Amino acid sequence: MSRVDDRLHQSHPLRQILARPELGALGGAVVVWIFFATVAGDQGFLTLRGTATYLEVAAELGILAAAVALLMIGGEFDLSVGSMIGASGMLLTILSVQWGWNLWLALLMVMVFAVVAGLFNGILVVRTGLPSFIVTLATLFVFRGATIALTRLVTGRTQLGGLNDVSGYDSARMIFASELPFGSAELPVSIVWWILLTAIATWILLKTSFGNWIFGTGGDAKSASSVGVPVPRVKIILFVGTALAAALVGVIQAVTFSGADVLRGELREFFAIIVVVIGGTLLTGGYGSAIGAAIGALIFGMVRQGIVFAGVDADWFQVFLGVMLLIAVLVNHWVRRKALRE
């Protein structure tokens, strides 16, 4: 565990509860819900259909945020996840539509591609010692540029459809793009993926030795290494995790829309970092929560759709997001200082 978590573990039980990473995010989610329920309740925010819309927005980002949270707790960043979403969706579509592969075989190849990309990022960061922010910013442009160039070379376009006509699409749609009954509305199955991955990430952090390694790696990598934590391996595995999560989002989008666009996933890397920080994870690593990241994604979804229901110009969305990020950073900084002082 990191020094922050050690201090919290040894403190008074009430202080432990108050200092949990996700507590501030939970309070923020309640405030955001009350706000939009008040100003946009009559416009549909409180209806089942309205709830379904913001949960759908939150789900895909939440899938990404679960893996990004683990990586950030481990002290690293991955800015390439947004371009990985577009690359994965386009690779799936080209292999299936252009080259006639069965969708499931193409999906397997997408996951292999994601593992290789994650290994590349992780090994590059570990071997060079360069900041992961810089390394993955570079690979963001590499992956996106290669996706655009190669897609144009193979298809002559940057958008490609027809995925619903390939072999294996119907079964894949059941798993990645079906809808679940939700009263008079429907919920996308991506919400199930979101909950499942958040639960797995939480279990890893709280119930496994690897979770302790993640906290130790992000809290103080040198000290963690001195007590036997395989810091390089932990970081590489976490980079593979973020790449796989991005690939999953790319597959969900491609199957849902029966095609791909090279620009899908644009800015998702920054949105993922924002919701993870809103969820209580420190930018410095060593402290955070997958549940908090899920709550951060929920806040993102409520704000994104809430301003639409309220009739506010969508341009104000980024203002809301920036203010929430600033507040979250200040709150997290205060919690960390209080925890270390005890």
Observed structural traits:
mainly alpha; two-stranded antiparallel sheet; 342 residues; 15 helices; single chain
Question: Can I get a quick summary?
Answer:
This protein has about 350 residues and is mainly alpha-helical. It contains 15 helices and 4 strands.
Secondary structure layout plus pairing:
Layout: H1 3-10, H2 13-18, H3 21-40, H4 48-73, H5 81-98, H6 103-128, H7 132-155, E1 159-161, H8 169-176, E2 179-182, E3 185-188, H9 190-207, H10 209-219, H11 221-226, H12 231-257, E4 259-261, H13 268-278, H14 290-309, H15 317-341
Antiparallel strand pairs: 1-4, 2-3
3D structure, described in words:
With 342 residues, this protein is mostly helical. It is 74% helix and 4% strand. The chain contains 15 helices and 4 strands. The protein has helices at residues 3-10, 13-18, 21-40, 48-73, 81-98, 103-128, 132-155, 169-176, 190-207, 209-219, 221-226, 231-257, 268-278, 290-309, 317-341, and strands at 159-161, 179-182, 185-188, 259-261. Strands 1-4 form a two-stranded antiparallel ribbon. The chain has a two-stranded antiparallel sheet with strand order 2-3. Strand 2 and strand 3 form a beta hairpin. The longest helix is centred in the C-terminal third of the chain and has 27 residues, at 231-257. It is globular and about 55 Å long. The model has no long low-confidence stretch (mean pLDDT 89).
